């Protein structure tokens, strides 16, 4: 268990003493529709081959969905497992709703078993909902709905630690009955050198917790000429934490994410970009690069992202978490199955809002908690048509897509730039994209413009 600075305060085992109670409600739909109800009068619920079939009658413009009601008690935790066959529906939402509160909202695009976990805010009735946000002639199926109250967790305490401001363990307030290596700021202790908790590994350098000073200079010292390169946490350890000089985290398909980030620098320097022990991207021996290479657009961008005071995440894959700016609700933004649109293959989320979309639009979602900027790019291949003839399909360099989205997000997140306009982040990234291509490939972009087509890996095999 950590505090707001990532300090490991208590370590608990994952053992449970006690078992969950019996399921509160099970629907296998062997016959009938049980106590399930249609979300709207225009929806039709029937039992088809041992599944609950949900379909749209076509009468008016209401959503297609079904729900069942369950009684819950305040502060207790519940689990809802349900199998959903999406049928001909492109996207379905699962969630539990109690009054104006929605729990565990989840968007799905594939058939399968899904789980919603939530803790009730108050006693009363919740609606367990499966809903397609559309009035089209869609139909889907529900099966094996199991609603359970979770058992009591009585964890074993393995260790607990109280800290002085710069991370030194407090005598008499530290207990440890296991060889747990991590502590202050969630970093690994180097106990063999100066004793337990007196020296900590911050990846880029070592911290002496008794002195409150690092033992080598800050890798980003050029960004802070007003401060000593050995100072820790800006001398305010209760407010700040040190990111080890690395602030860019890969997610999703991490091997592809690493290769995508490497594609922003010349090939001979690819091996210098690695994922460190903290799961962050680092640019090894950057200081030894020739000055001419450091000035390359892609090289400069990667270094800026890694050494920023903001936190960034890059996900290579179909899903990324976003937070609705107006309500703080969490959503999984998912690339549709069979997608062929470049726009749907990309999510670009920043703490800086876009003025060209409403605040509650998905384009204006905040990054997931703990990040200031978040970029997602699908695993497929990008193409474009000849802009002169509008025909043909030519491969569009993936690295150019990566560069554009990274720089656009950096300009919004770091500099507070808006998205649209001649001076906006989108145009700023576009202006530098062709220069980036020349630096990496040695030649310009023959056609310019943006990708017009996108092919997922599984669809590409069928071409």
What does this structure look like?
- The protein is an alpha+beta fold.
- It folds into 3 domains: 25-149, Galactose-binding domain-like (Jelly Rolls); 155-235, no CATH class; 246-463, no CATH class.
- 14% of the residues lie in helices and 33% in strands.
- It has 7 helices and 30 strands.
- It has helices at 191-194, 254-262, 291-294, 297-306, 398-415, 425-441, 457-460; strands at 10-12, 25-27, 37-38, 43-48, 51-56, 64-72, 77-85, 92-98, 101-108, 112-119, 124-132, 139-149, 157-163, 169-176, 188-189, 199-201, 206-208, 213-214, 248-252, 273-275, 281-283, 312-316, 319-323, 330-334, 346-350, 366-367, 373-377, 381-384, 394-395, 453-455.
- The strands form 8 sheets. Strands 2, 4, 5, 7, 10 and 12 form a 6-stranded antiparallel β-sheet that branches. A 5-stranded antiparallel β-sheet has the order 3-6-11-8-9, with no helix packed on it. It has a 4-stranded antiparallel β-sheet with strand order 15-16-17-18.
- A hairpin with a 2-residue loop joins strand 8 (92-98) and strand 9.
- Helix 5 (398-415) crosses helix 6 (425-441).
- The chain is flat.
- The protein starts with 9 loop residues before the first strand and ends with a helix.
- The model is unreliable at 459-463 (pLDDT under 50).
């Amino acid at each position: 268990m950590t505090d707001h600075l990532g300090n490991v305060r208590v370590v608990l085992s994952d053992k449970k003493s006690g078992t969950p109670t019996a399921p509160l409600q099970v629907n296998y739909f062997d016959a009938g529709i049980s106590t399930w109800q249609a979300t709207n009068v225009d929806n039709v619920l029937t039992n088809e081959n041992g599944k609950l079939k949900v379909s749209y009658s076509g009468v008016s413009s209401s959503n297609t969905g079904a729900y069942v009601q369950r009684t819950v008690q305040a502060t207790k935790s519940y689990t809802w497992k349900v199998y959903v066959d999406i049928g001909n529906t492109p996207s379905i939402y699962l969630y539990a709703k109690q009054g104006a509160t929605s729990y565990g909202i989840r968007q799905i695009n594939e058939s399968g078993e899904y789980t919603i976990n939530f803790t009730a805010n108050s006693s009363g009735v919740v609606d367990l909902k499966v809903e397609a946000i559309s009035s089209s002639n869609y139909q889907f199926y529900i099966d094996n709905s199991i609603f359970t109250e979770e058992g009591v967790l009585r964890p074993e305490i393995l260790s607990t630690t109280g800290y002085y401001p710069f991370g030194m363990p407090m005598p008499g307030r530290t207990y440890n009955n296991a060889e747990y290596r991590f502590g202050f700021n969630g970093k690994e202790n180097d106990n063999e050198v100066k004793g337990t908790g007196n020296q900590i590994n911050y990846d880029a350098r070592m911290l002496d917790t008794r002195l409150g000073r690092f033992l080598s200079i800050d890798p980003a010292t050029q960004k802070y000429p007003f401060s000593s390169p050995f100072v820790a946490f800006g001398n305010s350890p209760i407010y700040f934490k040190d990111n080890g000089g690395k602030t860019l985290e890969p997610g999703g398909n991490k091997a592809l994410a690493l290769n995508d980030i490497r594609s922003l620098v010349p090939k001979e320097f690819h091996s210098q970009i690695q994922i460190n022990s903290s799961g962050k991207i680092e640019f090894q021996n950057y200081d030894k690069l020739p000055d001419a290479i450091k000035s390359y657009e892609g090289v400069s961008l990667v270094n800026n992202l890694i050494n920023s005071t903001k936190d960034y995440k890059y996900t290579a894959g179909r899903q990324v978490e976003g937070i609705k700016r107006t309500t703080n609700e969490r959503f999984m933004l998912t690339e549709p199955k069979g997608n062929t649109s470049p726009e749907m293959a990309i999510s670009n989320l920043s703490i800086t809002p876009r003025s060209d979309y409403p605040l509650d639009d998905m384009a204006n979602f905040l990054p997931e908690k703990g990040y200031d900027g978040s970029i997602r790019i699908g695993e497929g291949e990008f193409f474009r048509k000849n802009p002169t003839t509008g025909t043909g399909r030519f491969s569009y360099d993936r690295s150019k897509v990566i560069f554009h989205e990274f720089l656009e997000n950096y300009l919004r997140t770091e500099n507070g730039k808006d998205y649209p306009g001649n001076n906006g982040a989108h145009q700023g990234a576009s202006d530098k994209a062709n220069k980036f291509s020349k630096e990496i490939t040695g030649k310009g972009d023959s056609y310019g413009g943006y990708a017009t087509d996108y092919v997922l890996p599984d669809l590409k095999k069928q071409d």
